[in-house]
Amino acid sequence: MIDYDKLIPGRIQDIQPSGIRKFFDIAQSVEGVISLSVGEPDFKTPWAVRKEAIRILEKGRTAYTANSGLIDLRRAIADYLKESIHTEYDPEKEIIVTVGGSEAIDMALRTLVDAGDEVLVPEPSFVCYSPLVAVCGGTAVPIVTRREDNFRLTAAALKEKITPRTKALVLPFPNNPTGAVMRREHLEEIAEVLRGTDIMVLSDEIYSEMTYNGAKHVSFAELDGMRERTIVINGFSKSFAMTGWRLGFAAGPQPVMRQMLKLHQYCIMSSPTVSQYAAITALRSCRDEVDKMVEEYDMRRRLVVKGFNDMGLDCFEPEGAFYVFPCIKSTGMSSAEFCERLIYDKKVAVVPGSAFGASGEGFVRVSYAYSVQHLTTALGRIKDFLKEIEK
Amino acid sequence: MNKLLDLLRQNARLTNAELAAMLGTTEQDVAAQIAKLESEGKIMGYTAIINEESVDETRVTAIIEIKVAPMKGKGFDDLAHTIMEYDEVDSVFLLSGAYDLSVTVTGTSLRKVALFVSERLSALEGVISTATHFILKRYKEKDHVFSEDTTDERSLVSP
Hints:
The complex is a heterodimer. By secondary structure, chain A is an alpha/beta fold. Chain A contains 14 helices and twelve strands. In chain A, α4 packs antiparallel against α11 (273-285) and α12 (287-310) runs parallel beside α14. The model of chain A has no long low-confidence stretch (mean pLDDT 96). By secondary structure, chain B is α+β, with helices and mostly antiparallel strands. In chain B, α2 crosses α3 (27-39).
């Protein structure tokens, strides 16, 4: 008999299953749950994009593409980056089309992280960074972001965690789950700390299109002198409602991208061809659709933020992504407890903040990637829930 | 573009408080804006979008194309006004193109609607010809899609 426990390396066995996964199992066990827990758009991919994919399939364009992606797509990405974050990348050498933003994160970390290296990860944040760092033999060092700072990363908090072993900093803004954004002045503070060091930055900008209150997204890469230390990660999932197409990209300085491309080449070959063709259409002709979706998110955001504040759960106003992150400490319950009881009592699923790192305790993540009608129904149930537990 | 009108077009049942939150304004402001739009005749009323055939199988709706002979001193308005007085008539539009008026008529049977057209509409002075098209199926109306699977295929919880 094979002893799998001995067979499989400890660094893999030690990876904790996502807290979101555990919560998913609970949510699924209850009949008739309405969810506010989904991390993907409720919109369909714009019809022009779907139509293009159908056309490409009809034409039989089903072969591999160049390893780094269709050159036309990389050019479209370069134009997009130039326009949106005012940073120029050579489509031939500095852009790789990946299988979602997730692959780009994994490849970037594997390219950079050596055994014993430390990677700084602001928390609460998306769940994949720490496990992927661990697989490389590195250590993810959480930096707590706080409600008082609107969940932004501050220079002081960053400085405290930098050691001689620090290899990279992950900048996951606009942030999942808090909805926090870093404006230019906040990024400048961070840049000031990193100037003169060799610390690389993984700027995960997957929610870059979803910013509100006139706070247009600013990339760390566009700050003076920061391009050379930044790998920009973005994709089509959120901005163009294309989660299932599995398409993202990484852009960065050529010496890094050259190394990263080797990994991508051996692991993936090339990203899905039909998705790549469709993505050209997304970038070249779907600006209006994106603006419309963002406007719709924005209205829902205001509705939900007000909803929580009115029912007495302190909810800071998020300026990005499509989540709100209300504080539930006033109920005296832990995040997990709150979420479980809400599911069992009122059949509404929200995600415990603790699933996004220890510092998320006391908060819950609520997605507003739902219709207004769905949102108002769910908010009504949460309001009833709060009244009942008060008694 | 008026965002308030956009929201009401999608769902006229949102409360003023909800509308105010979504538009980033106050409830009073929304109430005032709506009152103004109503008094100016820009908002004419509020109705539900109903999948009629699923509520009442016997109900039929037809779109009637009407060609009109231009009459001296009389525009299309007179005829349109005459037509819209009938209770059976839901809507009347003046159109550009191959025919002049488009009239929507609802009735409880094909026969009744057809008779209404031949006895009431065709007989009107100035009507040259009519063509009746019965609606067989509704796919989309007022931006609402009918008869489509609307279940959320996304998983209950995702990162």
